[in-house]
Write a structure and sequence with these properties.
By secondary structure, the protein is an alpha/beta fold. The protein has two domains: 226 residues, Rossmann fold (3-Layer(aba) Sandwich), CATH 3.40.50.300; 64 residues, Alpha-Beta Plaits (2-Layer Sandwich). Helices cover 34% and strands 28% of the residues. A six-stranded mixed sheet has the order 6-7-8-4-9-10, with helices on both faces. Strands 1, 2, 3 and 5 form a four-stranded antiparallel sheet that branches. It is a peripheral membrane protein. It is found in: Cell membrane.
């Protein structure tokens, strides 16, 4: 295992480390020389818009896509030389469920376990344990096609644990799920982390990143734009609060000129004006004192989404 020294002087063990890591596809450079490390036992996130390089990075960590340049160590090994040995110790949850729909819940777990060379008796016991973990025991004999989306996602995560991985890679783990299913999955992932499993997560949900990740990097254009704990990133790139003001149609641009100086930063959007400030209620009182009468106002705490949009922009990237 690779030992590192943090910028704050602390030490720990790195399960994954990239240094000047690059991935090219022909002339296109998807990952452009990034540095990162993932500590043992933490939940680490990769955030970024489409095309930022998240999936390319995850595929290199998963040892299914060779790096083009730079250094990468996963579980203390070189993926280019020891890919099979690394993969045997990984769990991978792909963005799209790839379960066998004609097999039962139990069969999906047991067949997958046999791919790792595990004994039939061992995978039978493990399948029972994992179905309980995923709250699917009562669906053990049901074919996968009959399951809901949330159940399939829980089964995919359970299947990734059949080999007792040291490192679990999750690509957009809750995309398309309803709020109840998302929160149940968050609970399952928190339990895994409490057992010592290291998690690497990509997600488009900022609340998910705040809930699950101890640290994360924001990627944009193949580079790392920022790194830190969610609370640290909010403190560094945003303000404590955000005041949202909405005005009647046709009056917003005039109002925008009247809020100057009320906040550290002002952002004018088509449907509202955002004032980034450490004191939202005070800013609202000052706006009223200037004669501004918004149709509605909202003071909320600043979030990771505010950081994300400031670093990567609001323009849709395809």
């Amino acid at each position: 295992m690779v030992t590192f020294v943090d910028s704050d002087g602390g030490t720990g063990e790195s399960l994954v480390r990239g240094k000047a890591l690059v991935k090219r596809f022909g002339e296109f450079e998807a990952v452009r020389g990034i540095d990162f490390h993932v500590r043992q036992g933490e939940a680490f996130g990769f955030l970024g818009p489409n095309g930022a390089g998240k999936s390319s990075t995850m595929r290199m960590i998963a040892c299914v896509s060779p790096r083009s340049d730079g250094d990468l160590a996963v579980l203390g090994r070189d993926p280019d030389r020891e890919g099979p040995r690394i993969r045997a110790r990984l769990g991978v949850v792909p963005q799209q469920d790839n379960l066998d729909g004609e097999l039962t819940v139990r069969q999906n777990l047991q067949v997958y376990g046999r791919y790792f060379g595990l004994s039939r008796s061992w995978v039978r016991e493990k399948a029972t344990e994992l179905m309980d973990f995923a709250q699917l025991t009562d669906r053990a004999q049901d074919e996968v096609e009959s399951l809901s989306g949330g159940m399939k996602r829980r089964l995919t995560i359970a299947r990734s644990l059949v080999n007792d991985p040291e490192l679990l890679l999750l690509d957009e783990p809750t995309t398309g799920l309803d709020p109840q299913a998302r929160h149940l999955l968050w609970d399952r992932l928190f339990r895994l982390k409490s057992r010592g499993v290291t998690l690497i997560i990509t997600t488009h949900y900022m609340d998910e990143a705040e809930q699950l990740c101890d640290r994360l990097v924001v990627m944009d254009g193949g580079r790392i734009a920022a790194e830190g704990a969610p609370a640290e990133l909010i403190a560094r790139y945003s303000t404590r609060e955000v005041l949202e003001l909405r005005f009647a149609a046709g009056t917003q641009q005039d109002a925008a000129g009247s809020v100057e100086g009320l906040a550290q930063r002002v952002e004018v959007l088509p449907d509202r004006i955002l004032l980034y400030t450490d004191a939202g209620e005070s800013a609202l009182e000052k706006a009223h004192a200037r004669g501004l009468r918004p149709v509605s106002s909202l003071v909320r705490r600043s979030s990771l989404e505010d950081v994300f949009l400031r670093l990567t922009g609001r323009t849709l990237v395809d």
